[in-house]
Structure formats: C-alpha cells, structure tokens
Amino acid sequence: MPIAMITGATSGFGRAAAYRFAAAGWSLVLTGRRSERLEALEQELGDRVRVLTLTLDVRDAEAVARAVEALPAEFREVTCLVNNAGLALAPKPAQEVDLADWHTMIDTNVTGLVNVTHAMLPRLIATGAGASIINLGSVAGSWPYPGGHVYGATKAFVEQFGYNLRCDLKGTGVRVTDISPGMAETEFTLVRTEGDQAASDALYRGTTPLQAEDIAEQIFHVATLPDHININRLEVMPTRQTWSPFTIDRD
Ligand code: NDP
Ligand code: 8X3
User: Fold this and answer.
1) End-to-end alpha-carbon separation of the chain, Å?
2) Which residue out of 149, 150, 188 has the highest number of ligand 2 atoms within 8 Å of its CB and is therefore the one to mutate?
3) What confidence tens digit (pLDDT) does each residue in 166-179 have?
4) Has residue 249 been placed in a domain?
5) Is 19 noted as a catalytic residue in this protein?
6) 3-class state of residue 99 by DSSP
7) Least crowded by CB within 10 Å, which of 84, 117, 138, 171?
C-alpha cells in the first residue's frame, strides 16, 4: 500500500487528509507537536491502516532529519509528502506586529517546510514515479490583504519553491503541487487570533467556508492522479469568497 506522510496532522486539513488517505487504505506517517492528538489519531485509524506517529516540530531541522533517518523500513518508501504544517499570526497592520510573530511564521511556514522537504527528498526520489510533494500554500500567497504581511509572503515562498523544485526534480518522477485554499473553517483562525473563539466564530458565521474535508479531498485527488500528470497549482476558494476591490487613501 502507498504511504502518505502528513505534517500538521493533529488538526484541520492535515487531520482530514489522514482520514481520507486511511479510507483508501494508505499507510500513514502523521506528525505534529501535540502528541496526545497524534495518539488519538493512531487509536482511531490504527485498526484500519498502518500508522506511525511522530511528535515533531517542523522548525527543528535536526529533529526532522533524525526522524526521517529513523523511519522504520515499512514506512520508508513514502509516496506522498503533504507539507501542511503552518500557521498565521497577528491579523493586524504590519507596523503593530511583534517581530517574534513574523519570525514564528517564517520559521514554521518557510523553514519548517524546507526542513521536511530536504529530509524527505531522497526518500521520494527513491520511490520515483507516482511520488508527490503537496505543499499547502494559500490564496494569501497571491492576493494581498490587510493583516496578511508575512503570512502571505511565506505562502508566496511556498508556491515559488514548489515550481523551482519541479525544475530540479525533472526526470525523477516526483511531482510537486501547490494547493492554495481560500477561507476554510479549521483551527487556523483560533491560532491566528491567539485563541479568540468569538473572533473565529464571527469570521465563519453567515457564510459557507471550505471545510477541512473539502481540501483533504483535493489533496487525495492530486496524490492519486496518474503518474504522468502534475498539477502545478490548485487554487480553491469557497463560492461565497471573492477578491476585494483596490482601496484608495483619500484626503
Ligand atoms: P490548523 O490550525 O487547523 O492546523 C495546523 C496544523 O499545523 C496543526 O496540525 C499543527 O499541529 C501544525 N503545526 C503548526 N505549527 C507546527 C510546527 N511548528 N511543527 C509541526 N506542526 C505544526 O490549520 P489548517 O488546517 O487550516 O492549516 C493547515 C495549512 O493550511 C497551513 O499551512 C495553513 O497556512 C494553510 N491554509 C489554511 C487556510 C485556512 O483558511 N484554514 C487557507 C489556506 C491555507 P500542532 O499544533 O500539533 O503542532
Ligand atoms: C488562509 C486563507 O483567506 O485567511 O491562508 O488568507 S486566508
């Protein structure tokens, strides 16, 4: 059975993707920082498919490299890496944000994703045809909005990194896709607002955001396309979300 390695499997898209791959019988390598959630996932999915959980902070390059190096033989031939772990912080004007929040987003969304990718590339290349790297970008990587500052910039990095990877992976059979969702109801806004449940509820109230399962379905679709197809980028928005107009500062 093929193997999916999913970073940030303890919540949102990553968790839903774990369920989606498990439903198709894939073996799973699930990572995240919250071990109790990983243990729960192992209990829920472990009787259906083979599950390996790794408590891992993607920002820690050495820990990531060690964990990949120590993958048991039956979990080594990873078919699909889902680089999903990520976060946004500080939804306020750039000039009011703590520098530490910018660093945390860069460390997680950029450095963390690079850490995992670097460690996993030899494994994916060894798997060869049919292997894929699916990176979670965002509409924020293409479309600026107030309060997006470093978050959007990290997702622009994710998109360009994926395209550049594709160039170098030519001939290996390894595919690279950027899935860039718009507004989706997960723990994302709770994290972004430092646990403000009312703010999170208010954002999703009265509209129809994407759900984690919607994106999990896209991830699974991309991962299971015939070997010769590479979707470069998939931008997915809720039907009820569109772009804002340009704004103008007036006297
Ligand atoms: P959630 O907050 O629900 O899930 C985020 C996941 O990332 C959690 O499992 C969390 O696990 C993990 N994570 C965060 N920091 C780290 C870290 N340092 N090391 C390891 N794992 C980490 O959010 P979503 O599911 O919505 O977000 C998933 C991805 O999708 C992110 O990259 C996000 O930027 C992107 N995205 C989200 C959108 C949305 O509107 N929801 C839209 C577009 C893109 P733990 O805390 O256990 O470590
Ligand atoms: C998160 C989606 O619309 O908040 O990446 O930028 S959005």
Assistant:
1) 64
2) 188
3) 999 999 999 999 99
4) no
5) no
6) helix
7) 171
